[in-house]
Amino acid sequence: MGLLQPDPFLNELTSMFERNRDKGSVWVTVKRSSMKSKSQKNKMATAGEPVEYRCLIRATDGKKKISTTVGAKDHQRFQASYATLLKAHMAALKKRERKDKKKGVDGDRKDGAGSTKKPKRV
Amino acid sequence: MVYVTSWDEFVERSVQLYKADPQSTRYCMKYRHCDGKLVLKVTDNKECLKFKTDQAQDAKKMEKLNNIFFALMARGPDVDLSEVTGKEQMEAQPAKKGRGRKQ
What we know:
heterodimer, A: Signal recognition particle alu RNA binding heterodimer, srp9/1, elongated, B: alpha+beta, three-stranded antiparallel sheet, 3 helices, 3 strands, 52% helix, globular
């Protein structure tokens, strides 16, 4: 696969997350890039042209690699879709329910980590 | 590896690292659904900052950080970060105007 347009990239990323639900990891890397080789960049700099930078996003699951670039104009739209995607897939993370002081309804905590429990009424 | 314990510290140091060297700083994320773990890494190939978590609330915070990095990288390191949050407000405003029109 390799370099894709932002929308197909997001689709591929979705299937990557799906494939790696029960086993495996998904790595996503974001970096600024002009997508030009050094010599081209030097030429542009000496010619006085502004070098346009884009955001390079890469993703892999250890086997397959995909990537895309996002420019300043598209980045907001991309980031909204990307955020939705991540939210949908990161469901395995623990939800911290803080019912510290008020009710001892769900009083049985296995961890006991975090806030020290003071006796409420003596 | 340098694991930062405080989220805010991680964000502040990452942004500093990026502004110091926007060309070589990158932001990486690794997610393992089977373990329910998320690890974030920001490095400029000299220094490395990492943050790991298994909390859903950190995923939300990470999304905001994503927005910050996208803005910094696509537009340039001189982007005013209040723009990132300011943009969200701007997007909200025209929506309100739209509602006002429907009568």
